[in-house]
Fold:
Amino acid sequence: MNGRTLRTLSIATVAAMGVSLSLVFFYAPIELEEGLLQKIFYLHVPLAIVSLGGFVLGGIMAIAHLRTREARWDLRSYVTIHMSLIFGVAVLLTGSIWARGSWGHWWVWSEPTLVSFLIVMLLYATYQPLRFAIEDPERQARYASVFAIVAGAFVPLNFLAVRLATAYLHPRVLGGASGLPPSMELTFLVSLAATALLFATLCCYELTAKRTRMLLRARSRILGFQ
Amino acid sequence: MPAKTGRVVLALLRKELLVELRTLESVPGMSLFAVSTLVVFHFALARATVEGDLAAGVLWVTLLFAAMLGLNRLFVADAEQGGFDGFLLAAVDRSALLAAKALALLAYLLVLELVALPAFALLLLGPPLGPALPGLLAVLALADVGLALIGTLIAALAVRTRARDLLGPLLALPLLVPIVIGAARASSPLLSAGHAGAPAGRWLLLLALYDLVFGLIAYAVFDFLLED
Structure:
């Protein structure tokens, strides 16, 4: 990816984040029950959606890798899952803070989405250990793709299972976007778009960095630097 | 023209069971581990008997961890002694190996439960096992299929990595959480005093659905683990 595209993407992301933060703090109304704390909803939920979407997308890219055998699909899948993991840590942190503020505990087992998310994170936390425990690069890519497909399919199934196991104890802020007043819904959608854009931009940066490093290594090998 | 897959599966399964019978590497270890775990639970919980939720939890944690031992050893001989190479040289459907290994693991689990369930009833379970048995067998059957399928897939994924003993259980445990949910929730009413009956349909349905989906996924991706 060339510098111009990266620059455009970065500017778009900063602008979108700016708009979304202004909407969150100056436009969206303060929620009556939870007050200012409810603003974390505009951070936590988009992060979770984007992170889960990234995990599934990583699985789809892994399918493309196994079908085409092109290393670039494996690289894309790796970067997407890596970024989703980072976003996932932020999801668990913001979820924990929200739970503490709202229900008085840092962790609640009665919130199925958060519990499912923890299980998904525990699974994906083994992606890199698995990958880097295999030396042969071709086999590494192939095994990582198999893992990404299995784990990508696990994400929705796991949500179903945990949701079945958890009684609905808490009123849900997002029981479908339809329950929100229009001003909150608009803010939420803009935040979601900004978070998705941030995810895409960071992925592009990581991809570019990885490709550049590989190129550099190949060139310096040709020139006999190592 | 590849040989008939059914016959290949049977031949591979026969070889697995024969090797296990001659070496006794997995099943005795799994069974002994399960009984030891029950003893550990007795002291860790400081209870003479358990029932209901607690009984279901103890039973499923014991079976799950004992299954991890079987999973870890499932492909070790093939990776170390050239079993994979021999299999790849034969002109047969590669999914046959998945089916044979999953059936072998299923057989190990059945033997494990033949030991662990009576031991559990004898050592820890408060209410009698008899009335709960028909329902519990249905739950065990569905959960075992899932354990065998996911266990085989993960064992094949982990066996040719540097840290296979560590990675196998680490990968398998999160993937098996839905099975634990279904199995434990379905068996906890069966194991409480005076509540034996049929297990709740939705947990059996969840287990069956999970088995089906992971069976299809394992079938779809297993070939890619056997390419070199």
